[in-house]
Write a structure and sequence with these properties.
The longest helix has 36 residues, at 680-715. Helix 1 (3-15) packs across helix 2 and helix 22 (680-715) crosses helix 24. The N and C termini lie far apart (84 Å). It is built from 25 helices and 24 strands. The strands form four sheets. Strands 3, 4, 5, 6, 7, 8, 9, 10, 11, 12 and 13 form an eleven-stranded mixed beta sheet that branches. A hairpin with a 7-residue loop joins strand 21 and strand 22 (729-734). By secondary structure, it is of the alpha/beta class.
Length: 799
């Protein structure tokens, strides 16, 4: 490997092509290409993608690029350092100026000329750009020094500065402007007086414009900027012609008027201490990289006037030692509110604990839902209130409108609460703030593996099933079906993870009563919603698939492999497919068996209902949602599969800094997420705290309460059960004329009572309501309150 090969590679990437790179290097294109080919052969990997109209680095090339640049910079640094000791300064100084800065407050041409005369072998580059882009270029190392406007009162992280201009912003108006009506002698205006007026200002990305936009937003209005120009003098000329109000830093000539032409502009100071135009010389806190730039900055800083507004003239020595690097700058201090919160962290956590305890203690009696209008959105605070102020504001403004979804009478969807132990684990999850992408440096991944093992045992799965935590059932189903898609490719001789879903051709997905997340997953995976074929279900008010019909549907495929989605607990009536019988069909047909056991899988905990999930262990992939019946905080689910090798093929992240998958792959190679919250910790706490017996009790109590509510509804005039209560969901509707409008009105009346929350559905073509019992706190008394609400006179009149 030669340095010139690295230089050629970097240049081709920067120029996005061999022709321009060769011109920049003053070489023939074939020579550049040949040297890069030799480098690729030596590394054993292609570095450049030459297939398109422009040349781009490959994944390996992208990973190699920063090292190549670092090697070239190091070699250049060797030469520059040696030159320093010899009294010869070489290298490059890259300077950026805000437009209009030339000749204002610093004689930049004279300054650069003096430096060039002193050090003729230094290459000087000078560009003009917006402040935002120059500050970004500084951080990225593309500039050494910038003269830029400041949109904020504090320097950006990683940057140091010396202010050279600091003037209040003024509103410059021509005589006769409406801002002067009735206020001929006024010298200032409030910021809100600019609302609705045509404004003339510097472009977006400049410091003054950033200040104006931020302050107006905080004041509750959007500035009406109709004219933009890069130089303040041009803004004043536009205002003098009556085209609007020029918002500029106060001119130096006169604080009250600025004669430009036939008439003098009036300068009205904007009444806000934060409304200031500030220009500064800015550099990285670690100083410029090259000795030439360090020498320029060192001499410049000695001559800068700080906040004075005199011109700056810098004289560089023609001989003698080269100025050394500037002294280390003073690092910015922590924001005062953040520092105060750090000092008071135990007290703040205690305040949050007390507030949460009060909210949870009142949960049984608070309105279950709040259907009213939420507060209007506030603008982003400029300085912040500190955590204590934020907690107080939340308690006053937002907490009253939060639902009681963690409480015992929130029966909508299938919503669990959060057991005391799981809340404890969730708080510690935030405190430790682990990223469970991999196992390096933390035991967090090992804890997740232990928790997955406990859950596998809880649901009766075998050692062949591996698992990982994900956000919820939708993602768990998506992961399971992604692995199924890869399995289809394996059966058809296609590498789907490399070639894409289109290489499979049409995919067949069969199910009896699939949840809506299945079609969503098929859309995300590129299989297509229309590829789901619903197989007839059993007769007799059932949602379970007719296995004989499924057998026939699979036979029609003529041996082509397919995906079968079985249901362990349908969402409307908690019906269960015969998993054992479906699995037996694999003796005759080739299919992947995915089981959606989002909440029905918890039937395994109860001896009276465990038979419903008999055969779950035969599934190729399984979805279980934990923030439902395990009663852990949102969001948490787990997915299991027998083919972790295929799962790794789909989700592995091929990046040098993350490492390649091993025999026991990190979790980032198993799920869509790279960054992963430690969702396992709340589940670990709850499983350890209450064990199998505690969670079995929750399941069996919820099932008994669902039957209790179902019996009560069956006895109420005007209501009828849509299906038998099979487990923990009661599906019911109006006895007469159950139109969507009437059923929705009943749901709204229940919610308005504050006593309960139910969700609508459509079952067997008829609008209905669902009451799902899955909260650990729900009691017989809560169930009786829900029934009493349905039977109350205001609601009875709607039946």
């Amino acid at each position: 490997m030669e340095l010139r090969q690295l230089r050629y590679f970097v240049t081709v990437v920067e120029e996005a092509g061999f022709t321009r790179a060769a011109e920049r290097l003053h070489l023939a294109q074939p020579g550049v290409s040949a040297q890069i080919r030799q480098l690729e052969r030596e590394l054993g990997q292609p570095l450049l993608d030459r297939s398109g109209r422009t040349v781009r680095p490959t994944e390996v090339g992208t990973a190699v690029l920063p090292y190549a640049r670092a090697a070239l910079a190091a070699v250049e640094g060797v030469g520059q350092t040696a030159a320093e000791f010899g009294g010869l300064l070489r290298g490059r100084v890259a300077i950026g100026l805000v437009p209009g800065a030339l000749g204002h407050h610093m004689d930049v041409p004279a300054l650069l000329a003096d430096f060039h005369e002193a050090y003729p072998q230094v290459e000087i580059t000078l560009t003009e750009d917006t402040s935002d882009r120059m500050l970004a270029a500084l951080r990225h190392g593309e500039l050494d020094i910038a003269v830029a406007g400041l949109p904020d009162s504090e320097p950006a992280p990683g940057l140091a500065l010396r202010i050279v201009i600091d003037e209040p912003l003024v509103a410059a108006v021509a005589p006769g402007h409406p801002l002067l009506d009735g206020h001929r002698g006024r010298t200032s205006v409030p910021l809100t007086a600019l609302r609705g007026h045509r404004l003339i200002c510097l472009p977006r990305g400049t410091g003054v414009r950033g200040v104006l936009d931020r302050l107006c937003t905080e004041a509750g209005f959007r500035p009406r900027v109709t004219c933009e120009a890069a130089a303040p003098d041009a803004l004043l000329r536009l205002a003098e012609r009556g085209l609007g109000v020029a918002v500029v830093p106060r001119p130096q000539d006169d604080p009250g008027t600025a004669p430009l032409g036939p008439q003098a502009l009036r300068m009205l100071r904007i009444d806000d201490a934060r409304a200031r135009g500030r220009v500064a010389v800015v550099w990285r806190t670690d100083g410029p990289a090259g000795p030439a730039a360090r020498a320029f900055l060192g001499a410049l800083r000695e001559c800068l006037p700080g906040r004075e507004r005199n011109r700056v003239s810098v004289h560089f020595p023609r001989s003698g030692p080269i100025p050394g690097p500037p002294p280390p700058p003073t690092l910015p201090t922590m924001h005062s509110a953040l520092a105060d919160d750090l000092a008071r962290l135990p007290e703040l956590l205690q305040s949050a604990r007390d507030f949460a305890a009060r909210e949870l203690a009142g949960m049984p009696e608070r309105p279950v839902v709040h259907p009213g209008k939420a507060p209007d959105q506030d603008p982003l605070p400029a300085d912040g209130t500190g955590a204590e102020g934020a907690l107080a504001r939340f308690a006053e403004r937002w907490a009253p409108g939060f639902s009681g979804s963690a409480g015992p009478r929130y029966l909508g969807f299938v919503t669990g609460g959060a057991t005391p132990a799981s809340i404890t684990g969730d708080w510690l999850t935030s405190a430790y703030d682990q990223n469970v992408s991999g196992a390096a440096g933390s035991w967090a991944a090992a804890l997740e593996r232990e928790t997955v093992g406990w859950l596998r045992e809880l649901f009766g799965l075998g050692e062949a099933h591996s698992g990982a935590f994900v956000t919820g059932a939708a993602v768990s189903n998506t992961v399971g079906l992604a692995v199924a898609r890869e399995w289809l490719g394996e059966r058809l001789g296609v590498d789907v993870s490399q070639e894409g879903t289109a290489a499979l051709g049409p995919v067949d997905v069969l199910s009896g009563s699939p949840h809506s997340s299945i079609t969503k997953a098929l859309s995300v995976l590129g299989i297509g919603r229309d590829r789901l074929r619903q197989v007839p279900v059993l007769a007799g008010n059932r949602e379970a698939v007719d296995v004989a019909q499924l057998d026939a549907a699979l036979a029609e495929l003529g041996g082509r492999p397919a995906i079968v989605v079985a249901n362990a607990g349908t969402v409307n009536t908690v019906d269960f497919d015969d998993l054992r019988a479906i699995a037996a069909l694999r003796e005759r047909h080739d299919f992947w068996l995915h089981v959606d056991a989002a909440f029905g899988g918890f039937a395994a905990l109860s001896p009276a209902h465990a038979h419903l999930v008999d055969g779950l262990d035969a599934a190729d992939s399984v979805c279980v949602d934990l923030h439902k019946w395990l009663n852990v905080p949102y969001d948490a689910a787990v997915q299991f599969t027998r083919r972790r090798d295929l799962q790794t093929r789909v989700f592995h992240n091929a990046s040098p800094y993350l490492g390649l998958p091993t025999g026991d792959p990190d979790f980032l190679h198993l799920t869509p997420e790279n960054s992963r919250r430690l969702r396992a910790l709340p589940a670990w706490f709850s499983l350890l705290a209450y064990g199998r017996a505690g969670h079995r009790e929750i399941v069996e109590r919820n099932v008994a309460l669902a039957h209790r509510l179902g019996a009560g509804i069956a006895s109420l005039p005007g209501l009828r059960l849509s299906a038998p209560v099979r487990l923990n969901v009661v599906c019911f509707t109006l006895a007469e004329n159950p139109t969507q409008e009437r059923v929705a009105a009943l749901a709204e009346a229940v919610a308005a009572s504050g006593e309960a929350f139910l969700t609508p559905t459509v079952y067997d073509g008829t609008p209905a309501l669902r009451a799902a019992f899955s909260n650990w706190r729900t009691s017989g008394a809560d169930t009786d309150r829900v029934l009493a609400t349905l039977a109350s006179p205001p609601l009875a009149r709607r039946l």
